[in-house]
Write a structure and sequence with these properties.
704 residues; alpha+beta; Beta-galactosidase, Chain A, domain 5; 2 domains; nine-stranded antiparallel β-sheet; eight-stranded antiparallel β-sheet; globular
C-alpha cells in the first residue's frame, strides 16, 4: 500500500464537495412513511399526505388530510387519492397532488428549535376551490402518561384552534389565516367526531397551516412560515458540511441519508431534556410514535456513528443524557419516555430492565473519549463510570460472566426463548467490551488499581467464554437456559462478542466464518437465528428476523476476522435497504425470508442507519481515530471493482483529514491531506477484495 500523506489531493478528489444529501424524487406510494421531524415537534405520516402531529410530549391530532371541492361538487375529493410524486429533502418534504383542474403541492417542515410545524400549500388552480382539512383531535401525552379535561376552543377571527387539558399546562394550537369555517365545537371537552376546517380559494395562491406547541410559538411561525423551510434546510446543509462526507459507488446517497436519519433523532422537551430517540413511526390509535422516546442502547450505537462522522459534540451530549438519567446504583437506563415528567417513570418496570446497557455504556464512553481526545469527559464523569462498573459486578456469576437473571434482559425480550434465558452471548459481548472500556477509562484517570482489576476480570471472562464454543458447529452457543441446558443455535448475536470482545483469535475466526453461512445470512443482513434453529421464525421479532443493529456487529466481525467479502455483502444490503420503508430511512427489522419489512417495524430506526454508517467508515474504509494519541489508523478493505473512494472532513481530535483511496493489486494507493494540528497516520496494508458485482435487491425478493 502506498501512502502520500500531507500532499494535495488528486484533481478528481478536489472537485468532490457535497453539501446536501441527494434529493429523493419518487412516485408517491400511499403506504410509505414520510415525516418532518424537529427537536420539539413532528409530523409523522405517509406519502399520500396524511399525518399525525406531535408537540413533544403531546400528540395533538391524527388522521389529518386535505380534501377539495371543485365545480360545486357535493362531495369532497381527498387529496390522498391524487398524490402523484414526493420530493424529500433533509429539511422538508413536498407532495404533489394533480387533478384535471388543479395542482396542489404541500410541503411539510418542522422547526429545528421550536415546537412548530407547518404545512405549506402551493395551489395552482383553473377553478375556484373549497379546501377542507379534517383530523381527529387527540391532545394526549406520549405513552404511558395520561390526563383528563381535554377540550378545544375556536378563534373565528384569527382561524386558530386551541387544544388544552384540565390543568392548562399544555395549550398547542392549529391554525391558518385562511381558515373561515369549522365544524361543531363542544364546550369543555374534545369533539367526539372528526373536526373539519374549511377555506375558499378563488384563484391560485399559497396557504400556510401551522401547528405549534403554544400560541406564542404559532404567532412567531405564522408571520413567516417559509422561514421554517429556510432554517431547516440550512441546519442540515451545515450539518452535512461539517461532518464526514464519503463518495463511494453504490454507497454515497445511502450514507448521506444515514447521517441525516441519525441527526433527526434528537428530541427535546422541558420535562426531560434533549436526547436521541430510537426511531419514528406514526402511532395510529396509540400514543407510541414508533420508538420516539429515549433508549440507552440505541443512543450508544448512534453515538458510535456520530463519532465516526465527526460529530463529537453531539456524541458527548447524547452520552451525557444517559448519565443524567443513570440510576443511583450506577445502572444505565434502557428506555425513558418523553412524558416522564408527567408521572413517576422509575416506578414503571421498563426504565432499567436491561442488563446490557450498563457494560455497553462503559465501552461507549471509552470509545468516545479516545476518538474525540476528550479527557475532560473522563475527568468530569469518572465517579459515574465507576458506579456503573461496580453495578456490573453485582450481575457477575462465579466464572466472571454476567447473569441475565441478576441484571435483566439483553438479546431476548419476546418470542420462543422469552423467560427461559439465564445468560446470553450478547450480554457477554457487552461485558467484555465494557471491561476493556473501563480499563481504559481507569488508565486515563490514573486509577491504576482499578485498571489492573478490570484487566484481570477481562482475562478471566475471556477464558470463561471459551466454554461457550461448540466445536462441532464452530459457533458460540447463544445462551445458557434456566433449565441448565444450552441453546446452541447459530446466531447473529455472536457478532458483538466477535467484533468487540478481544477473544481468542482462533476461536473468533472459526465462529466468524459461521456468520456467513447461508442458513444465517441473507442479502440484506444477518438473521438473529439461523434457519436450522429449533425456533426459527422468519417474521418473529426475536426468533429469526433480520435486525440491522445485529447485522452491524456481524459486519464488523466479518471484516475483522478474515471474512471481508461477506462483510461487504452485508454493507451492500444495508445500502439497498435504505428507502424500503420510507425515503432515506432503514427500517427497524426485516423478514428473514424475503426482502420486506417485518410486521409493525418502525420505518425510521436510528440504529438501522448506524448499521450502514458505522461499519462503512470503521471497517470498509478502515478509518479509526485516536484523538488522545493524536493518530489515525487507515486499514481499508475495499472491493477491487469499487473504484476510488473519497472522503472529506474525517475528524481526529481537532484535525480534519481528507483523502482518496484507490483499491488495487498489488498496491492500494492512499492520498491524504490534513487540516489542523499534525496527526500520525498508521496504515495497515490489506489487498483489495475480489468480490463479484452484487445485484440490486428487489422488494419481496426471497433469501434463497
Amino acid at each position: 500500500m502506498r501512502v502520500r500523506s500531507l500532499l494535495p489531493l488528486l484533481a478528481a478528489t478536489a472537485t468532490f464537495c457535497p453539501v446536501h444529501a441527494q434529493v429523493i424524487t419518487k412516485p408517491a406510494q400511499p403506504n410509505k412513511f414520510i415525516e418532518a421531524v424537529g427537536r420539539r415537534a413532528a409530523l409523522l405520516g405517509h406519502e399520500d399526505g396524511t399525518f399525525e402531529a406531535w408537540a413533544y410530549p403531546i400528540k395533538v391530532l391524527r388522521d389529518f388530510q386535505l380534501s377539495v371541492y371543485v365545480d360545486n361538487a357535493l362531495e369532497p375529493t381527498p387529496l390522498s387519492g391524487l398524490a402523484e410524486s414526493v420530493e424529500v429533502h433533509p429539511g422538508h418534504v413536498t407532495i404533489t397532488h394533480i387533478a384535471a383542474a388543479f395542482t396542489i403541492r404541500q410541503t411539510w417542515v418542522a422547526s429545528t428549535v421550536k415546537p412548530a410545524l407547518a404545512v405549506l400549500l402551493d395551489v395552482d388552480t383553473s377553478k375556484p376551490l373549497k379546501l377542507r382539512a379534517t383530523f381527529i383531535p387527540e391532545m394526549k401525552p406520549m405513552w404511558p402518561a395520561s390526563f383528563g379535561g381535554q377540550s378545544t376552543g375556536w378563534n373565528q377571527k384569527e382561524g386558530v384552534l386551541t387544544f388544552t387539558e384540565g390543568m392548562g399546562r399544555f395549550r398547542p394550537v392549529l391554525g391558518s389565516p385562511r381558515f373561515t369555517r369549522i365544524s361543531e365545537q363542544i364546550g369543555h371537552q374534545l369533539p367526539d367526531r372528526t373536526v373539519m376546517l374549511e377555506f375558499d380559494m378563488e384563484k391560485s395562491g399559497r396557504v400556510p397551516i401551522v401547528i405549534a406547541g403554544s400560541r406564542a410559538d404559532y404567532d412567531i411561525a405564522i408571520k413567516d412560515p417559509g422561514a421554517l423551510v429556510t432554517a431547516a434546510d440550512a441546519h442540515f446543509s451545515a450539518f452535512l458540511k461539517r461532518t464526514t462526507s464519503i463518495q463511494a459507488e453504490g454507497f454515497t446517497a445511502a450514507y448521506d441519508w444515514g447521517r441525516v436519519a441519525i441527526e433527526k433523532g434528537w428530541a427535546c422537551n422541558e420535562g426531560v431534556g434533549c436526547g436521541l430517540v430510537a426511531g419514528w413511526a406514526p402511532s395510529g390509535l396509540s400514543e407510541r410514535p414508533g420508538f420516539g422516546w429515549y433508549f440507552g442502547g440505541d443512543t450508544m450505537m448512534s453515538a458510535w456513528a456520530m463519532q465516526d462522522y465527526g460529530d463529537f459534540e453531539g456524541a458527548r451530549a447524547a452520552l451525557e443524557f444517559l448519565l443524567d438519567h443513570q440510576r443511583a446504583d450506577g445502572k444505565v437506563m434502557h428506555e425513558w419516555t418523553q412524558s416522564s415528567a408527567l408521572l413517576d417513570w422509575p416506578k414503571y418496570p421498563y426504565g432499567y430492565y436491561h442488563a446490557d446497557t450498563t457494560p455497553l455504556f462503559l465501552f461507549s464512553a471509552a470509545r468516545y473519549a479516545r476518538q474525540a481526545g476528550d479527557l475532560d469527559f473522563v475527568r468530569k464523569h469518572w465517579p459515574k463510570f465507576e458506579q456503573s462498573y461496580r453495578f456490573c459486578l453485582t450481575m457477575l456469576d462465579d466464572d466472571g460472566l454476567l447473569s441475565n437473571l441478576k441484571g435483566g434482559a439483553a438479546a431476548v425480550e419476546t418470542g420462543a426463548l422469552s423467560g427461559k434465558v439465564a445468560r446470553d452471548i450478547y450480554l457477554q459481548g457487552a461485558w467484555l467490551a465494557g471491561l476493556s472500556g473501563f480499563a481504559e477509562l481507569a488508565s486515563w484517570q490514573g486509577q491504576k488499581a482499578l485498571e489492573s482489576e478490570a484487566r484481570a476480570r477481562l482475562t478471566k471472562a475471556r477464558e470463561a467464554i471459551k466454554s461457550w464454543f461448540v466445536p462441532e458447529k464452530a459457533i458460540f452457543a447463544f445462551a445458557q437456559l434456566k433449565d441448565g441446558s444450552r441453546y446452541e443455535a447459530n446466531s447473529g448475536w455472536q457478532g458483538l462478542l466477535l467484533a468487540r470482545g478481544g477473544i481468542d483469535p482462533a476461536l473468533a475466526a472459526k465462529a466468524t466464518a459461521s456468520l456467513a453461512r447461508p442458513t444465517l445470512a441473507t442479502p440484506w443482513g444477518t438473521r438473529m437465528f439461523a434457519t436450522d434453529s429449533p425456533f426459527y421464525n422468519p417474521v418473529g421479532y426475536n426468533d429469526g428476523s433480520v435486525w440491522p443493529f445485529v447485522t452491524a456487529q456481524t459486519t464488523l466481525a466479518l471484516f475483522r476476522h478474515g471474512q471481508p467479502a461477506a462483510g461487504y455483502r452485508y454493507l451492500h444490503g444495508m445500502a439497498q435497504a435504505t428507502g424500503l420503508s420510507g425515503a432515506g430511512f432503514i427500517s427497524e427489522y426485516f423478514s428473514g425470508d424475503r426482502f420486506a419489512e417485518g410486521p409493525r417495524a418502525v420505518p425510521h430506526q436510528l440504529f438501522s442507519s448506524v448499521a450502514l454508517v458505522n461499519p462503512l467508515i470503521t471497517a470498509m474504509l478502515g478509518l479509526m481515530s485516536d484523538g488522545i494519541a493524536g493518530e489515525v489508523t487507515i486499514a481499508p478493505q475495499l472491493p477491487c471493482a469499487l473504484g476510488p473512494v473519497r472522503f472529506q472532513q474525517y475528524r481526529v481530535g481537532q484535525t480534519y483529514l481528507s483523502g482518496e483511496i484507490r483499491p488495487g493489486k498489488p498496491t492500494t494507493v492512499i492520498n491524504l491531506k490534513q487540516q489542523g494540528p499534525p496527526v500520525k497516520v498508521q496504515v495497515e496494508d490489506r489487498p483489495c477484495l475480489d468480490v463479484p458485482s452484487l445485484p440490486s435487491l428487489t422488494p419481496g425478493q426471497r433469501a434463497d
